[in-house]
Design a protein that fits this description.
The chain has 276 residues and is mostly helical. The chain has one domain. It is 69% helix and 0% strand. The protein contains 13 helices and no strands. Helix 4 packs antiparallel against helix 7 and helix 8 packs antiparallel against helix 11.
């Protein structure tokens, strides 16, 4: 009997089924890249992974002071701090993922040019890093709710579907931006501005009910609106006036971005090693 380990060869798949099979075969590489980035992210930080708790809590305090204490914004009869935290968690996951995945192919240029593997693994690994932060913040919110006057209801059953929708949206934007950045490096300078602007057009610190009726059709085209409103419905059982419409719009926009982003990434993938 031979003591040699079996050799697994991964070749570029020429069909969608073949490509997805290669992604599955490369799952250990996905875990390794995600774990590597987690270690690099927190290795030299004094508070380490505790920042996953500190950051959303500090943002929650800042929003509470500015928008609740000073601007007196409504929060659908929910404790405003919890209201903000429920919106901050999906927003921070999305914004952090966008910032990191947009440059992920460039920062792994040496890996891309040396060997073949499905390149889509690289932005997906970055999503895994931010999902860890999201999961920690998610648990903190669940712990805080009973102490701040919020109970648990059947609406929590909607959370898995909303998390999947959030992951799909973040993946879709990651596919688009990471592949475009390889060809157009200017995107690296545009993305931070987009993220800074995005927090104001997403209901992180305010309720969607504050948007004038004539602008809601445009406002709901932002898929994060339906997702954030959905998270608040799941946690607190409160729904905005047009919640169903915003959620359905979010689902369709997310599906469109995900499918188109996936195929665009695959179309450009063969040129990454040459252009990176």
């Amino acid at each position: 009997m031979s003591d040699k380990l079996p050799i697994i060869t991964i070749e570029a798949g020429h069909t969608q089924k073949g490509y997805l099979q290669n992604v599955y075969k490369s799952r250990e590489l996905l875990y390794f890249l995600a774990w590597r980035d987690i270690i690099v992210r927190y290795k030299q930080a004094f508070f380490g992974i505790a920042w996953a708790i500190v950051r959303p809590l500090l943002n929650m305090l800042a929003f509470t002071l500015i928008f609740n204490r000073i601007a007196h914004l409504e929060s659908e009869n929910v404790n405003y701090a919890l209201f903000v935290l429920a919106g901050m968690l999906p927003w921070q996951f999305f914004s952090g993922s966008v910032m990191d995945t947009s440059n992920s192919l460039l920062t792994n240029a040496s890996l891309i040019t040396k060997t073949y593997f499905p390149r889509i693994i690289i932005p997906l690994a970055q999503l895994g890093v931010h999902f860890l932060d999201f999961s920690i913040g998610f648990i903190c919110l669940l712990i805080l709710m009973p102490f701040m006057g919020a109970g648990f209801g059947l609406s929590l059953l909607a959370l898995p579907l909303l998390i999947v929708l959030l992951l799909m949206l973040s993946s879709a934007v990651a596919f688009w931006l990471s592949s475009i950045t390889v060809q157009y490096r200017d995107v690296r300078f545009i993305v931070p501005f987009m993220v800074q602007f995005g927090i104001f057009i997403s209901p992180v610190g305010y309720s969607s009910n504050l948007i004038p009726e004539k602008w809601k059709w445009l406002y709901f085209l932002n898929p994060l609106v339906g997702i954030i409103d959905g998270f608040r419905f799941a946690f607190f059982g409160v729904a905005t006036t047009d919640f169903v419409f915003s959620l359905v719009t979010s689902i369709f926009v997310t599906l469109g971005l995900f499918i188109s982003g996936y195929f665009y990434f695959l179309k450009k993938e063969r040129y990454f090693a040459d252009r990176i």
